[in-house]
């Protein structure tokens, strides 16, 4: 058995295990179109800063400490006054208030505004697509993202994909749940009822068809 075949067999078994586990549950994702607010966090979502983001920090009347900063892999930035400010995992507003507290040591009543110029976000909030997608990869989550949005970004399915046996893995209240999703019905048959809401951190597993 060559290494390529062995690796494909291993991946296939992992996907099959996930599918069997998903099919053994009664979890059902409601339609995104019929129920646009069907997920608990979708309307209260706030963007969290992550490594690789470019932050524009403006300090009113203090241009010397304002500027653009790239969030380092350790989730921190360094400004002209303060080194190693932890920013990853905070909203821009939360970060602005934190910086005001820090700068209050050096400046009188600082007023800070933070905007994000390049969106990456925390890895924990990215949506990951693996298996038989045309371009499997991690995608930055955006509010009200649906399965159709994700599939457009990954270029759809490969010719070998079994889209109707795909699985969505989601963490809810600390528990990992798995849902079967019907990607073929959505993309090939145009069944909008197969479209579902996507949440930060979702993982989509697309198996290979067993001909």
Going by CATH, the architecture of the largest domain would be Roll
Overall strand count: 10
CATH superfamily membership of the largest domain, which one? Outer membrane lipoprotein wza domain like
What's the shape? elongated
What structural class do you assign from the helix and strand content? alpha+beta
Percent range of helical residues: 10-25%
Question: What Rg, in angstroms, do the CA atoms define?
Answer: 21 Å
Strand coverage percent: 15-25%
Question: How would you describe this structure to a colleague?
Answer:
- The chain is 21% helix and 22% strand.
- About 6% of the residues have low confidence.
- It is α+β, with helices and mostly antiparallel strands and 211 residues long.
- The relative contact order is 0.18.
- It has a five-stranded mixed β-sheet with strand order 7-6-10-8-9, covered by helices on one side.
How do the helices and strands line up, and which of them pair or pack?
Blueprint: H1 3-23, E1 54-59, E2 67-70, E3 76-77, E4 85-86, H2 92-103, E5 112-118, E6 127-131, E7 138-139, H3 147-153, E8 166-172, E9 175-181, H4 183-187, E10 203-206
Parallel strand pairs: 6-10
Antiparallel strand pairs: 1-2, 1-5, 3-4, 6-7, 8-9, 8-10
């Amino acid at each position: 058995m060559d290494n390529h075949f062995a690796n494909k067999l291993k991946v296939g078994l992992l996907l099959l295990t996930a599918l069997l586990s998903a099919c053994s549950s009664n979890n059902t994702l409601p339609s995104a179109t019929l129920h646009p607010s069907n997920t608990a966090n979708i309307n209260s979502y706030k963007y969290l800063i992550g490594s690789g983001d470019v932050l524009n920090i403006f300090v009113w009347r203090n241009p010397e400490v304002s500027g653009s900063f790239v969030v380092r892999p350790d989730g921190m930035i360094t400004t002209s006054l303060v080194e190693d400010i932890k920013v990853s995992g905070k909203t821009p507003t939360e970060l602005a208030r934190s910086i005001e507290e820090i700068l209050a040591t050096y400046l009188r009543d600082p007023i800070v505004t933070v905007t994000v110029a390049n969106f990456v976000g925390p890895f924990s909030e990215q949506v990951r697509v693996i298996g038989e997608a045309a371009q499997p990869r991690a995608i930055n989550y955006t509010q009200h993202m649906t399965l159709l949005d994700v599939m457009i970004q990954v270029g759809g399915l490969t010719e070998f994909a079994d889209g109707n046996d795909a699985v969505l893995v989601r963490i809810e209240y600390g528990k990992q749940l798995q849902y079967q999703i019907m990607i073929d019905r959505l993309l090939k048959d145009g069944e909008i009822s197969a479209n579902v809401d996507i949440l930060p951190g979702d993982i989509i597993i697309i198996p290979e068809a067993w001909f």
